[in-house]
Amino acid sequence: SSYFIGPEGGTGPEYELAASFADYLGVGIKVIVPDAFGDLGTLLRKNQGDFIAANLTRTPARERLFNFGPDYTEARTIVVYRRGQPRPRKLADLLGARLAVIADSSYEDLLKEAQKDLPGLHWTAETSLGMEGLLLAIADGELDATLVDSNIFKVNSQFYPSLKKGFTLGKEQPQAWAFPPGDDDSLAQ
Q1: Which has the closest alpha carbon to 57: 3, 134, 109?
Q2: Model pTM?
């Protein structure tokens, strides 16, 4: 969610961590950027990568699919909207809004849970847009709101000064790298 090609090659917080880890192991690094967020787990399960380093929130559902390494940060999910529009302060304020989130993400899981109490809550689950694309769509007025991790918003807010934080959903959640499932859980140590 924050990987860029800079003047000296790959860069971004996750890339820097992964590159340092590769240096520590004495190996090279090859980054595979999937077409959609939901493809991360598929690539890992098909042995087309060694681990997922993508600001992945550790959730109970994901812990059933992957072995996780140590938590390296925590983030809260926030609702982002465009400056000059009415500020959403609670989920009910998103009823009727043009809301989109990344498909198969923890954001979509949060909305599905909220929809039990707010059946009129609707959103688009985007498979072709990444986080930057969703933020750009809000900045351009094509969407009203999205959900994003607080650390991702902090990094990207400098590029999208017209975006604002509406409110926070849920509690802080740990983020960690995900490794393939297996009988050996020493990776999570």
Answers
A1: 109
A2: 0.76
